[in-house]
Amino acid sequence: MRTYFEPDEDEEFEAAKDLIVRRCAAWAAERGSRADEVVLAAALESRHMSVDGRLAYWGRDQVRRFLGEYVPRYVVADQDVLERAPESLLTLLRHLAATGLLDPRGLGPEALATEVSEVAADYPDIIADPRRQSLAKFWTLLALDRGVDLHDEHALDRFQEDIDAGRVPYDHDLLDELALAQFTQPDQEEERAFAQPPVTLPLPAEAAEAAARSETVRRLKLLYEWADDRQLTSKGRLRAADARALAGLLGVESPEPLLAWARKAGLVRVVKGRLRRTAKAAPLVRDPEALWRRAFERFFELGAEIGSGGSIMSEWFDEIIPDVLNSLYGMPSPLPVARLQETVWLACQEKYLVEEDERWRAGVDADLDAAFAALAELGAVELSHGVADELYSSDLRPSDAEDDLPPPLPPEVCERLLVRLAEPGPLVRLTPLGTSATRDRMLADGRDVPLLGELADAPPAGLLGVLAQHYPEEEAAVELAGWLAAHDGDTEPLLQAVRDCPYRTRASAMLAVLAGAHPDGPTLLTRLRHDPVIGPIAMTALVEEGRLSHDDLTADDQLAMLAEAMFALLEMGGPEAVHDQLTTLPNPAARELVEAVAASPHPAQTALTEFRTLIADPLLHPSTGFLPGDS
Question: DSSP label at 54?
Fold first, then answer.
């Protein structure tokens, strides 16, 4: 059972959401916990409509976004349900933890309970503030207050007519506020960011050494020492003699860009027409890595100082350059600058609504080159020259395969790039320190940026769940090896996590990644064929791999695998998917199949109970059967 879906996987997400809500509600009922299904569903929807899309990843920001923004803005429910939303959210988080679904890279259950409790203190005021709702929620609540059936199109049409005719009283001032907020405040449905590959970061000592070698760090330190009460011109610039002296000291043609950088970084300031050092920056200047990171963060504010300063790229510098660095992140080989130039130019054209223009295009290319040069001197990127890896041209060629993705760029751009990439040209890649700093920025934006080694202390279920969904095969093997090294090579806790998982499709994915990443994976699967809990999953995997034939299975084995398949279908598609499958069979065969699965001694009790309740009971009960010919 997955807890991550691409934005266009609507049906798959809905099925997973319904499954988690259904299971969580049953789990809560057994414990007497609050679990309003509308809140559970909304919590999962809020995570699906986020920048990272991880349903089971929860931290401080996610809790506060849901209770402080998402619920008051979008969720329509009885007042009691809304008021008790923190309790329902806490139940969901505890269910995710208890079933091994909670992403270990977020907060643990106790820390999450603390976060929910802190938000709950202010929550009554939040939920009582009508200005926090969306326009859609405003009209929905108004319709419900007047008894309008939201599923009746004619009733909705009459409601709209009454509004247009002025027969429906409402708060016009509040409506105006909500309308203004809709255009000025960010929407809670965030744009999904591309998934990033797992990376390795430099060791602390390596990062410190790299920062100390940075030419920009050296120059900023020199500038800081030089800027000792220097008189500026009436326009706030260095006097000519001082500019020449500083340029010579720093070894640059013009010191103005570095001076602007130093001011953005808080190293110097202008006081009554004089340039002075900032006293509180002294500790920063003595710490090369801290100074490096401050300079990196402030670099994105230098659009007017980098390059010509007059191109159409300068206004969007703080948006374009982070996107460029994100494109470089995790790449296995240097990326051709030519390809980045094309994508940056397309972005500029879209923002400015301009057509192809050689002069403007040349300015954008030059500014991108200047940005790379500045980042190279900082030590965030490494520039080289050569023929780009085939990776960066393979997706530009047209393909006859029906299932291939369309080219990522317009046809004429692809043709132009294929010619350019066939010849040697400028290449760029992030340095280890640049990778670390770019990762920090993406983390701050809420993105999923896996780090090799970060799961060494993760609980077994969390480890296998993350590897199954977010790690490529090679990196999963590395991460698993690191986890085993930290746990004396003992696989038993991992196997027990598979046994304990009540979601059978999740358990299957966990076992698959364990067998695929473990050096003795094939042997492990064969041995687990006879495990009383994992056996049905292991046998299914062995059959799918062709290492076990149906002739090798006993009648009990075949029944266990049949039940496993039905449970998987129920989890992935819901009761409707199982109903559709059964209706393809003659009634006697369908009944026999359902009876056999329902009576089977399958070890997955949660899945078996759910199958009996949602599938077997409706089919076998004479008044609620769902197959053709049932009464």
Answer: B
- Across the beta sheet with 274-277, the strand order is 228-231, 274-277, 268-271
Please state, in angstroms and rounded to a whole number, the distance separating the CA atoms of residues 525 and 529.
6
**Cα–Cα distance for residue pair 153/144, rounded to 1 Å:** 14
CA dihedral 88, 91, 92, 93 (to 10 degrees): 120
Instruction: Tell me the C-alpha distance between 602 and 283, whole Å.
Output: 65
Residue 567, pLDDT score:
96
Length of the chain, in residues: 631
Give the SS3 label for residue 308: coil
Type of residue at 103: D
Whole-angstrom distance, CA of residue 457 vs CA of residue 485: 11
* Residues 350/355/359/361 CA torsion (nearest 10 deg): 40
Sign, Cα dihedral of 93, 99, 104, 110: positive
How far apart are the C-alpha atoms of 212 and 365, rounded to whole Å? 30
Quote the CA–CA distance of 434 and 153 in Å, as a whole number: 55
Which portions of the chain are predicted below pLDDT 70?
186-189, 308-310, 353, 400-404, 622-631
Residues 6+ apart with CB under 8 A from 151: none
Residue 240 CB contacts under 8 Å (≥ 6 apart), including other chains: none
The predicted structure's pLDDT at residue 628: 47
Closest CA to 356 of 371, 345, 341, 372: 345
Say what the pLDDT of residue 629 is: 46
Q: Return phi, psi of residue 270, to 5°.
A: -105, 125
570 contacts 607 by C-beta, under 8 angstroms: yes
Asked if residues 49 and 65 have their Cβ atoms less than 8 Å apart, the reply is no
Residue 404 has what pLDDT?
A: 67
CB 257 within 8 A of CB 302: yes
- Give Rg (Cα) of the chain: 30
Query: Could you give the C-alpha distances from 537 to 346, 551, 577, in angstroms and in order?
Result: 49, 17, 21
